[in-house]
User: Fold this.
Amino acid sequence: MKWNILEIEKDVKEALSEYRYKHSLNVMEEAASLAKHYKASKDDIEKCKVCGLTHDLCKELTEEENEQLVKKYNLPRELLSKENKNLIHGFLASVIVKEKYNFDEDMVLAIRYHTTGYPNMDLLAKIIYLADKIEKNKNYPGIEQERLLAYQDIDEAIILCLKNQIKSLKDKNRRINPKVYDTLSYLEKINSK
Assistant:
């Protein structure tokens, strides 16, 4: 394996609160479990683990730190808008893991879009998206059905998660990123055949 998971874990622990660090460890564990269930290769299981561990690496940065990194990496300024408050950490983490640990492009995409998914996701991206939603300490209406479905049909599980996410955001009168709808529409289309 080309990544030193202990070194990465140390970096993640330093970057995050105890709560967020535990969440990251849980996502790593859930991602490995899903990868094994879906018969991923040994290398892909390792990829799932390090992506699960680092997906929230930038979740607790200040607005100033976000701004500095957007500038440093020449990322779109709209990431700093209020509407993208819940997305920016995935974008920032994806560029940092690429630069610092030389993560592969599929890993970068899985981390970048772990909150919304994206059309035509590969298995790695699907696993990271799902593991973040269903890790063992998460608890919200509908999660038991999501957990059950996650080990039966990964696409159907993601469809259910996306629908629950949309409903939850609508109930809170919060903006829904268009990528959530794009992902849902794509998965529904390919799974209706």
Summary: DSSP finds ten helices and no strands in the chain.
